[in-house]
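We modelled the chain as a single entity of 86 amino acids. Its sequence is:
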Amino acid sequence: MNPIKTMVVAIRVLAVRPWLWPTALRQLRNFAPDGWWRRAPFLPIPDRALLEFRSTTQYGDPNHAADADDLLAWLEWCRAEARRVA
């Protein structure tokens, strides 16, 4: 899975849903590799192996880009779970 394509999908999904911004930032922090600020491109881009694993388990293809609807559903679920346990 291409991390840049995933980021583009995420930006498109989140642009019109500001209530999901905090949830998305928390998830980005959770998925970002430790010490990401010390390595180029100095962005908290998740590890490619992790993205490929998640893509394989969800879609059966390590190169399948994230679907906007799936990303939205996952972020909504994360938001609901955070509220439930708080």
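As a brief sanity check on the tokenised model: The chain has a mean pLDDT of 89. Residues 22 and 79 are 9 Å apart (CA to CA).
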